[in-house]
Design brief:
Elements (H helix, E strand, L loop, with lengths): L1 H20 L5 E6 L6 H9 L4 E8 L3 H8 L7 E6 L4 H5 L4 E4 L15 H18 L4 E4 L4 H14 L8 E3 L2 H15 L10 E3 L6 E3 L12 H12 L1 H9 L7 H18 L5 E8 L7 E9 L2 E5 L9 H28 L1
Parallel strand pairs: 1-2, 1-4, 2-3, 4-5, 5-6
Antiparallel strand pairs: 7-8, 9-10, 10-11
Bound molecules: nicotinamide-adenine-dinucleotide (NAD) and (2S)-2-hydroxybutanedioic acid (LMR).
The site of nicotinamide-adenine-dinucleotide has 32 residues, from helix 5.
C-alpha cells in the first residue's frame, strides 16, 4: 500500500511538472533593457505567463546572470540572453511582442523630457532593429519621455516602410493602475472593481484622469477631484523623490507592463474581450498620438474608445485643452529628431 501511495504521489508530481513545462500557447516575447530596474522584475512577472514559449532578454550588460537566474523557474518559457548590439538581431527574430524599458530614469528635479537626449537615440536604434528583424511584432515602449519616444518609433518604422500604427504602443498602464489605486483608497472601494480612464500622454499635466468616468459610478467633491488629479499626475515624481536619486518607479511599472504584455498575448491568442489604455496613433483629438482606452485584437488596436472623451465635465474639458500644447510639442520634438537622423 505504501509503494502504491508513493507511485501515485510520483505520478501526480510528474503530471504537475508536465503541466508546468507544457506551454499552453507559444508566443515569443523580447525585453530590451532586461537587466534594468524595470527589466528584471518585468521579466520575472512575464516568466510566469503560460502564454509564452520563449523569453528573450537583451541588454548592453549584465543580462547573462539575470537570464541564468530566471531560467531556473519551472514555468513554461525558455529564457535566452543576448548581450550588446551584435546579438540584437538574433534576440528579435520571430518575436511576437517586444517590450522596451531600455534607457535612463529620472533623478529628483528632472522632468521626463530631460531624458530625451539619451533615450531618444536608444529607442531609435532599438526600433530600427525591430523593423529589420520582427516588423510584425507588437512594440511596447516604456522608455521616457513616452510622449516623444513613441513618435520617434513611428517615424523609424515609417522610414523602414513597416509602420503599422495598430501595433505601436506607449505603455501608460501605470497611470491607470495608479488612478485605480488612489481612487479606491480615497473612496473606500474594492480595488478589483475600480476602473478610471486616463487619457492624454505620460508626463505631468498631459496625464489626464477622467474621474467622472470612474466605474463603478462614484461622486467626488471638487476638492477631491483636484487632489486626486494632481496626485495621479505627480505619482511618478512621488516615487522619484522617495527613491532620492536611486531611479524612478520600477516595481509598480513592472507590474503594469506585465499586465499590458499579458493583455497583448491574450489578444494575440484570440480573446475577443481585451481592453487596455495606451498612447497610440489616434484620431480622437487633433493630436496625432493620444492615450486612451483601446480594444486589442490579433492585429493590435482594433478600435479606440471615443466614448471616454464624450460628455466630459468642465474641469476635464479645460484640462484636456490645457494639455494639448505640451503634448503636441513633445510629439513634434520626437518626429523632428527622427526625421533629422533619416
Ligand atoms: P535602469 O537604468 O534601471 O535600467 C535601464 C536598462 O536599460 C539598463 O539595464 C541599461 O543597461 C539598459 N540600456 C541602456 N541602453 C541600452 C541599449 N541601447 N539597449 C538595451 N538596453 C539598454 O532604468 P529603469 O528604472 O528600468 O527605467 C527605464 C526607463 O523606463 C526610463 O527611461 C524610465 O524613465 C522609464 N519608465 C517609464 C515608465 C512608464 O510609465 N512608461 C515608468 C517607469 C519608468
Ligand atoms: C513614472 O510615471 O513613474 C515613470 O514615467 C518614471 C518617471 O520618471 O516618473
Amino acid at each position: 500500500a505504501l509503494r502504491a501511495s508513493f507511485a501515485s504521489k510520483a505520478q501526480n508530481e510528474n503530471q504537475n511538472i508536465q503541466y508546468h513545462l507544457q506551454p499552453q500557447a507559444s508566443f515569443k516575447v523580447a525585453v530590451l533593457g532586461a537587466a534594468g530596474g524595470i527589466g528584471q522584475p518585468l521579466s520575472l512577472l512575464i516568466k510566469m505567463s503560460p502564454l509564452i514559449s520563449d523569453l528573450h532578454l537583451y541588454d548592453i550588460a549584465n543580462v547573462k546572470g539575470v537570464a541564468a537566474d530566471l531560467s531556473h523557474c519551472n514555468t513554461p518559457s525558455q529564457v535566452k540572453d543576448f548581450t550588446g548590439a551584435s546579438e540584437l538581431a538574433n534576440c528579435l527574430k520571430g518575436v511576437n511582442v517586444v517590450v522596451i524599458p531600455a534607457g535612463v530614469p529620472r533623478k529628483p528635479g528632472m522632468t521626463r523630457d530631460d531624458l530625451f537626449n539619451i533615450n531618444a537615440g536608444i529607442v531609435r536604434d532599438l526600433v530600427t532593429a525591430v523593423a529589420d528583424n520582427c516588423p510584425g511584432a507588437f512594440i511596447h515602449i516604456i522608455s521616457n519621455p513616452v510622449n516623444s519616444t513613441v513618435p520617434i518609433a513611428a517615424e523609424v518604422l515609417k522610414q523602414k516602410g513597416v509602420y503599422d500604427p495598430s501595433k505601436l504602443f506607449g505603455v501608460t498602464t501605470l497611470d491607470v493602475v495608479r488612478a485605480n489605486t488612489f481612487v479606491a483608497q480615497k473612496k473606500n472601494l474594492k480595488l478589483i472593481d475600480v476602473d478610471v480612464p486616463v487619457v492624454g500622454g505620460h508626463a505631468g499635466i498631459t496625464i489626464l484622469p477622467l474621474l467622472s468616468k470612474t466605474r463603478p459610478s462614484v461622486s467626488f467633491s471638487d476638492e477631491e477631484i483636484e487632489q486626486l488629479t494632481v496626485r495621479i499626475q505627480n505619482a511618478g515624481t512621488e516615487v522619484v523623490e522617495a527613491k532620492a536619486g536611486a531611479g524612478s518607479a520600477t516595481l509598480s511599472m513592472a507590474y503594469a507592463a506585465a499586465r499590458f504584455v499579458e493583455s497583448s498575448l491574450r489578444a494575440l491568442d484570440g480573446d475577443g474581450d481585451v481592453y487596455e489604455s495606451a498612447f497610440v496613433q489616434s484620431n480622437l483629438t487633433d493630436l496625432p498620438f493620444f492615450a486612451s482606452r483601446v480594444k486589442l485584437g490579433r492585429n493590435g488596436v482594433e478600435t479606440l474608445i471615443p466614448s471616454d472623451l464624450q460628455g466630459l465635465t468642465e474641469y476635464e474639458q479645460k484640462a484636456l485643452e490645457a494639455l494639448k500644447p505640451e503634448l503636441k510639442a513633445s510629439i513634434e520634438k520626437g518626429i523632428a529628431f527622427a526625421q533629422k537622423q533619416a
